[in-house]
Amino acid sequence: MQGDFHVDGYDIEGLLGAGPAGEVWLAREPASGAQAALKRVRPRDTAAQEEAGRIVSALEPLDHPHLLRIREMLPYEREVVFVLDYAEGGSLGQLLLARPALDPGEVVTVATAMAGALEAVHRRGIVHGDVTPENVLFTADARPLLADAGLLRLVEGGEAGTVGYSDPAGHDGTPPTPAGDVYGLAAVCYTALTGATPETGVGRRPLHQMAPGVPPALAHIVEAGLQARPSQRPAMAQFGAQLAAACPTSPVRFPSGSGGGDSAPFGPNLGPGTESGTDLGSDSGTRGGWDPARGSGTRPRAAGPTPPPDFPSAYGDTGAAPAEAGHAPAAEATDSEDSEDTEDTEGVDEARRSGRRRLLLLAGVPVLLVVVAVSGVLGWRAVREPAADPTPTSTMAAMSPAEARWAKVLDDLDVRRARAWKEWKPALLNQVYTPGSVPMNDDLTRLRKYEQGGVTSVDGLRTPIRSLHVVSQGSDRVVVDAESQLQRYRIQIDGNYYPRDGEPPRRFRITLERSGTDGGWLIAASREIAGTTPAEPSR
């Protein structure tokens, strides 16, 4: 599935993911058998390519336990390839798909490690510029690692950072600052504690309101890092020290299934034939991870929860005996039940029947969500690649500046829309679609339909862009053809999460129009089209 991507000295094993800074591939050195991650980046110009070399030279001497090591940088046509250590444990972003929020001690464990790594990076003259949950990785024993220091600004459109984590005091084209990294790390803490990305300015709900169980001292220091004015934020060293003093650390816990050795590692899927996807663990148990007090722990693992027997899969029946729609099979009674037990059992059975009725109403939800996810709102994070589908040659790493610009616009819109579905806030869709448009009305209709079926959240509703072609471009209207792929997501019903696999790639024609209020871009129309995007991007 590696397409035309080949690097001398490495066997490509599969695509781990794609983001605004480029693609990441899993590779192996044939001589040693050691695995590595190859990050494929297309610098926006010659100056950016020279900056890439400076970053590698500056970070190469660092041997920090919480910094993902860059082994070397290799030229690759008009791109560069960073050879990185492979972090088997996945990202914090993936962990937050399985666990909507972490315990305060776990957040302090991760955040203090990141603060130390960022401080070391700053001392070498490098500003990260994109501190997000996706750039916090874990080793096989759950040790946190900081990734992608300084890389996002190398690509076209990367100056703006990631929505929700970029410095609100910054502006397009202005260099990132260490104070901006403090804001980004504080935003990561806020997300990990609450399950929600912080809003900027007065619209952000205070942390103690979003997560009342957070220790006041911890809430105070996180809020200090989120101050709008950089001068009011603590320095990185002070931020890390105050986090450590605010709450005792605790090992990061990863979801664990009852299958023991049968559970798959919690991390990115490595391609066809592997089982290391980000399946969600049951709430019945967790496995301890890296403990800052002792250094190592249990390999992070996850396994999918066991839904009710008549909960349909995304592709049809799970194999359970069919039941009439809206009704659950009758429960078998035992001769040993007395009258009191019977009353209790009837109450439990009624609750189960109610839950099953809700689940049966949602038989079409996973399929419909595919339509929702790819109705014109595209994202970046790749989780799973279907075995039968090859990766196209025209990828984000090979986009022209114009294509990268519109991919970034679509990504920002997708972040807003994913938040609307996760937090169940229909009003946020006004920041995604043109009012009254067909995609807007479709999303609102589906939200109402799922709410009637008992769904309270749809988490991880994102799609990576595989290719993009600009069809036409005007001052107030742009049309693009984009191929996208729905990633793994999960549905919340009655407090329980049910994971769903992604889908094969699909191609859409998307129309963007300027907003009449703030001049930003909104989705006005989207329709599925046949064929594939051109192998060579438009110039």
UniProtKB/TrEMBL annotation:
Keywords assigned: ATP-binding, Kinase, Membrane, Nucleotide-binding, Serine/threonine-protein kinase, Transferase, Transmembrane, Transmembrane helix
Transmembrane stretches, start-end: 359-380
Lineage: superkingdom: Bacteria
Segments of skewed composition (Low complexity): 319-333
Biased composition (Polar residues): 275-285
InterPro entries xref list: Kinase-like_dom_sf, Prot_kinase_dom, Tyr_kinase_AS
EC numbers: 2.7.11.1
Acidic residues composition-biased segments: 334-348
Protein's UniProt name: non-specific serine/threonine protein kinase
Lineage per the UniProt record: Bacteria, Bacillati, Actinomycetota, Actinomycetes, Propionibacteriales
